[in-house]
Amino acid sequence: MVRILKRPYWQLALLSGIIIGLSYPPLHLGFLAWFGFIPLIHVLLNVKAIQAAKFAFLASITANFISLYWIGLNSGAGFLPVFASLVGAILYLGIFWSGLGYFVAFVEKRSSKGLIALPFAWVAMELIRSLGVLGFPWINLGLTQTEYLPLIQIADITGSYGISFWIVLINIGFYLAIISKDKRKYLIITSIIFLLVFGFGLIRINTIENINSEPISIAITQSNISPDEKWEPKSREENFKLMHSLLDSALNLNPDLVLWPESAVPAYLRLSSYRRNPIVAKLAKFNIPLLSGTVDRVIDENGVKKYYNSTIFIKPDDSVKMYNKIHLVPFAEYIPLSEKFPSLKKLNFGQGNFTPGNEYTIFELDSIRFSNIICYESSIPKIVKSFVKNGAQFITIQANDGWLGKSAGPYQHFELAKLRAIENRVPIVRCANTGISGVINSLGVVQQKIPLGKKSIIMANIFPAQNLTFYTKYGEIFAIFCIIIVLIIYASVWINRIK
Question: Which among 40, 65, 122, 142 counts the fewest CB atoms within 10 Å?
């Protein structure tokens, strides 16, 4: 490894990018993240700040191209919009790595505290990267570790940011073991850090009581309808027949709830009694409610039509309750700032021009409260946390990953649900149009799953949560603490510079 670190800096940055990129699902190589940053760390500690920014940018675009290539495979839009989305996303994410590299090198050159600053700066970067309409927490380092359940149980305290923190710490420990004469010392320290996280996880897995409430049975319906065909007029009736057939099969299982995926049928279910009435008739016969993805249209007080990507909860008595997706995918479901500048809606990137919702809706199933999140929202920790903090005892996820084929995207999307389950210690039931659907308990254990590209129904029993986790109560307090440490380090460097 020492010999490798003598290579040109651009090669080291590229190497780090490749290793980190390969550590993301579905390649089952999450352990690569434990040492993937070592070449980049060596670069950041040995170059000027502006050079560090450039090399970190190179590492970022490499890692993110490998892990996010699937953004360029969206079959729901034309080649140019999709290609622009991929390039734009990779360049945008590179800005954050670049800023991190600049900061670490700046601190190292002026105080030799670059290694101390790095894990705090990384978490601060991930939190900042998650903010705003362009926030993208999908690619946080915690996603690389979802196959190693003991190593991610700390998320119920720190959120996924704590996972990122210890990953960077482990990289630093290995780096010091490589460059130091006292290799054994740093290997022991690194091993202790790893074992503490692992041991804590094992304790949590063996002490958290999952079966502490009456179970809820849910029938999960994966229709495997191609999103390209769903809204085609010639396919519409066939799709309705298929969904009704699956509904019949699900109701015969006698669950407490039937779950359909995002945009399950090509209709405005709230507005169309013609499409809803046959569904309600079946629900009434069995006295079982349905939670379905749909689209919705509302005319506001100014006569303006607003369209929503929604969830509809239909009870056997035909009463309905809606949830409108809060965090829309920029440039796919809407154009950012188009509410303030309506002319932006004329731009055509193949987007849906939806309006974001603003209410954290809670549904009730007898005495049990739950919430639904739609597709991309499952990558955003604070959204799931807010639902649970408002009273949701379990979470359903409706998704449509069919646009991405059998790429890494649907697999990563499913793995993200493990993090949300552990952070809030709630069971999560995921229903995706073409997959992957499944049930994840509060420890992140996948209890049942329907593979990608398969039409099927599964029946699952879940145990609603009874208590709030530290993370659910206090949110990103660990990440905010890291930002404070970064500011303190930055201030101390400037004060020493003035002196």
Answer: 65
Q: What is the pLDDT of residue 6?
A: 80
Residue whose pair of structure tokens reads 């303190």 in the numeric block = 488
Per-residue DSSP letters for 53-115? HHHHHHHHHHHHHHHHGGGGG-TTS-HHHHHHHHHHHHHHHHHHHHHHHHHHHHHHHHHS-HH
Tens of pLDDT along 251-276?
999 999 999 999 888 889 999 988 99
pLDDT at 313: 97
- In 3D space, the residue among 487, 459, 3, 477 whose CA is nearest the CA of residue 246 turns out to be 459
| Residues 6 or more apart whose Cβ sits within 8 Å of residue 184 | none
Report the predicted TM-score, pTM, of the whole model to 2 decimal places.
Answer: 0.92
Count how many Cα atoms sit within 13 Å of the Cα of residue 444 in the half-sphere of its side chain: 27
DSSP 8-state symbol, 283: H
Query: What is the four-CA torsion angle of 451, 455, 459, 460, rounded to 10 degrees?
Result: 30
Residue 362 lies in domain: 216-465
CA atoms 443, 160, 476, 421: torsion sign: negative
> How far apart are alpha carbons 469 and 69 in whole angstroms?
34
Mean pLDDT over 373-384 rounds to 95
Q: How far apart are CA 486 and CA 409, in angstroms?
A: 33
Same domain, 200 and 264: no
User: What confidence tens digit (pLDDT) does each residue in 53-92 have?
Assistant: 999 999 999 999 999 999 888 766 667 778 888 999 999 9
Task: Reply yes or no on whether the pLDDT at 350 is more than 70.
Answer: no
Residue 439 lies in a domain: yes
